[in-house]
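Q: I'm building a small set of examples for a reading group on sequence design. Run inverse folding on the following structure and report the sequence directly after it, with nothing in between.
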């Protein structure tokens, strides 16, 4: 993990220094919910991240132990990104953001379907999805 300069000792502030910008959380979102795994996959997201920002955020997330990369089995020119155990531990946070958004925003039907499953039994969903993410 890199030695990130802290603004304070507040755990929320320190955490936000690692994953708190919108692009980093969207990369984590894609890895958790959409299984996006290559650089080009991330570039295809609806948010249209710029290549320089994507490269910087991927490097920062890797440096902080949130994601790791490995060789692509079909192409030496590509790498695969995946969440580390530390990154997978962001799953409950991402779920709570979705639950909050469902309460206050209009969300797509695709996300609403995921939330239906989550709301039936949040703990079971987290356990199941955590297992799936560890197997990737």
């Amino acid at each position: 993990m890199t030695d990130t300069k802290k603004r304070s000792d507040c755990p929320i502030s320190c955490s936000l220094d690692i994953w708190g910008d919108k692009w980093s959380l969207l990369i984590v979102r894609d890895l958790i919910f959409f299984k996006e795994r290559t650089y080009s996959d991330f570039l295809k997201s609806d948010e249209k991240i710029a290549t320089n920002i994507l490269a910087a955020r991927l490097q920062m997330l890797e440096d902080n132990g949130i994601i790791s990369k490995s060789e692509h089995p079909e192409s030496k020119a590509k790498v695969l990104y995946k969440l580390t155990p530390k990154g997978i531990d962001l799953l409950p946070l991402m779920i709570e953001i979705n639950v909050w958004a469902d309460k206050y925003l209009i969300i797509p039907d695709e996300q609403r379907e995921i939330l239906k499953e989550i709301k039936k039994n949040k703990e079971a969903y987290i356990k199941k999805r955590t297992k799936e993410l560890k197997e990737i």
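The longest strand covers residues 67-71.
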